[in-house]
Known about the structure:
By secondary structure, the protein is α/β, with parallel strands linked by helices. The protein is built from 22 helices and 9 strands. The two termini are about 60 Å apart. The model is unreliable at about 115-145 (pLDDT under 50).
Amino acid sequence: xxxxxxxxxxxxxxxxxxxxxxxxxxxxxxxxxxxxxxxxxxxxxxxxxxxxxxxxxxxxxxxxxxxxxxxxxxxxxxxxxxxxxxxxxxxxxxxxxxxxxxxxxxxxxxxxxxxxxxxxxxxxxxxxxxxxxxxxxxxxxxxxxxxxxxxxxxxxxxxxxxxxxxxxxxxxxxxxxxxxxxxxxxxxxxxxxxxxxxxxxxxxxxxxxxxxxxxxxxxxxxxxxxxxxxxxxxxxxxxxxxxxxxxxxxxxxxxxxxxxxxxxxxxxxxxxxxxxxxxxxxxxxxxxxxxxxxxxxxxxxxxxxxxxxxxxxxxxxxxxxxxxxxxxxxxxxxxxxxxxxxxxxxxxxxxxxxxxxxxxxxxxxxxxxxxxxxxxxxxxxxxxxxxxxxxxxxxxxxxxxxxxxxxxxxxxxxxxxxxxxxxxxxxxxxxxxxxxxxxxxxxxxxxxxxxxxxxxxxxxxxxxxxxxxxxxxxxxxxxxxxxxxxxxxxxxxxxxxxxxxxxxxxxxxxxxxxxxxxxxxxxxxxxxxxxxxxxxxxxxxxxxxxxxxxxxxxxxxxxxxxxxxxxxxxxxxxxxxxx
Length: 579
């Protein structure tokens, strides 16, 4: 059972708050923790907490309302069943309407399991032994105690979070030496130029005074090009050449669903790299260096901008080497482009490069039927047109796997060719399938747009009909029956009780009535709705006239429609008399 303690620092009276607390208790009492040995627990409801407490609560709680827990038994700290109970509490709190919410600044819910050993009778006895004034004073003390606990919890949380963030990023030794990276002459020259600046920074900037021109030397490289062209391998090669470890980071490790968390993760990654003198390597760099969103429309947009702004700040202060890799360099924000020392393009290897890659990647221990000659490597290179280094590696792996599966003691040259051709065929089939998929997607999108347009029109019909039904400020039973039948036939879900308060503005609804046919269907339906009870009162007349005006119906046709409404109402009235 839950015991609720109020800590109220607002001007709202306790009598106003009492119904809300009663509903809160009813909703939460059914959340049973008895199987965890918890019969009773306390919830502190803190209204208008001080600014420091609110700041702490907002840092700890990721909800629309501030909700967090204290004193969770250690054995249930990561128990999925216990977590499910907490989630139920959280959801129920979020869904309770706070009638006085507009009159307060904040509300914090602190669920405290430390008092779970107290029985309900002990609480009742305590309440009976104190007067109203002392009860209020005790509640205040408990509320303060809860907030003090919150502050202690936050301090521990910050310390633990900082440690946790750092342990998420671990520098490793580079996997490849630079001389294992096959690149064309231009790429090799650009890499060497960049390494020369990095190796000789002290001489160039300090001894030769270039720091007067550029006070903050940057060792930032950008590798861009198609997948599988050796960007990651080259980053490891540079780390090896510089005799440093490498810290590889991708966007998924930085991104957080919680606002403000992603920049903190990014800071942790830079700190770990700085402390370990590691090269910082960002894969999927377009996610980090993309253009900042100018038209911010959501918290997610704001989070992206915050992360990218934080990246700019960290790059300014970082004294180590940073390498970015991407397939989509065109998405980079110009603010990042100007900070990058070298933009190096990684192309798909040409024939000469593919020959070198085959020579490098086929192990010397492979039991070949015949020694491979230059003409064999040339054949492999020609057959593998369009392959990346990764594709070549995978085709060699296919060859060795097939040889092992067949139990071959020696591997013939043509097995390499068959593996290359098979992979080429696979890629061709994939390309054909993508073309078909793209065509199908285009057709599906077109069909979806048509279906969406149809559904939008159906919803608009019901919406405008609901406005018609409420035009005389009441919902007649016959109107409600007709609306229910229409909702079923048009597959439209409407608010319980057909409450017009849930409807969008009429001006927004009629945007979907964008053809003459749709306009007339909507007006006809509205006339049938207002006339179904056998009356056509002034408010209903005004609504039909307003609707015609909004839909730009010609005045002559509008008069005819009004006359038709009177006639239909009269016919319905006669029908009810006959019945």
